[in-house]
Amino acid sequence: MGETRSIDIFQLLLESSGRKRRRSEVLSSLGIKEHFIDGDIEIDKRTCRGVDCQLCIKVCPTNALYWGYGQINIIKDLCIHCTACVLICMVDDCIKVTRKRANNKVESFSNPRQVFRLLQSIGSEKRLGIVNRIFQSRRFS
Ligand code: SF4
Ligand code: SF4
Predict the structure, then answer these.
(1) Cβ 97 under 6 angstroms from ligand 2
(2) How many domains does the chain have?
(3) The domain that contains 47 carries what CATH number?
(4) Residue 84 alpha carbon, nearest atom of ligand 2
(5) Which of 60, 66, 95 maximizes ligand 2 atoms within 8 Å of its Cβ, making it the mutation to test the pocket?
(6) Terminus-to-terminus CA distance in the chain, angstroms?
(7) Is residue 89 part of a domain?
(8) CA 54 to centroid of ligand 1, rounded, Å
(9) Is 6 a domain residue?
(10) How many other β-carbons are positioned within 10 Å of the β-carbon of residue 100?
């Protein structure tokens, strides 16, 4: 009869909450505020220009990226999913950032156009909000 492996769910929860605490301690010591409740980052090492580029390392605000063992490495616990690295990367689909907003909306970026599109739509929404507020204030004045 095969041996059944039991998972200690309480230990797992304890470990993950400790990790979250350490992460927020490190980020707050850097003066960095988290804007997304969850996220992930992947780098395709096959398409990365590596040692000739390293632009992503230079723009990362938290030093989550570093050069070592002949490749780009990620300290995922330091990544705040800001997408600065996606914006600067010269290779489409090399870096992929996925993040979840407070309203549970999931966003995914793997090239600068997707980031610009989001920034543009945020800008449009803000402008629309301003126009609506002006319109409402004129209607009731
Ligand atoms: S910016 Fe892109 S291509 Fe350049 S090192 Fe970083 S992941 Fe590689
Ligand atoms: S998403 Fe932002 S914090 Fe994360 S690795 Fe890229 S530049 Fe650094």
Answers:
(1) yes
(2) 1
(3) 3.30.70.20
(4) 7
(5) 60
(6) 80
(7) yes
(8) 5
(9) no
(10) 15
Residue 74's domain comprises 35-132
The size of the chain, in residues, is 141
Q: Residue 95: enclosing H or E segment and its boundaries?
A: strand 95-100
Q: What is the pLDDT of residue 17?
A: 65
- The answer to whether residue 72 sits within a structural domain is yes
What pLDDT is recorded for position 5?
53
Residues 66, 21 contacting (CB under 8 angstroms)? no
Q: Whose atoms come closest to the Cα of 46: which ligand?
A: 1
Residue 94 lies in a domain: yes
Could you report the per-residue pLDDT of 83-139, keeping only the tens digit for each?
A: 999 999 999 999 999 999 999 999 999 999 999 999 888 888 788 888 888 877 776
Q: Which ligand does the CA of 88 lie closest to?
A: 1
> pLDDT digits over 7-45, tens only?
565 555 556 667 777 888 888 888 888 889 899 999 999
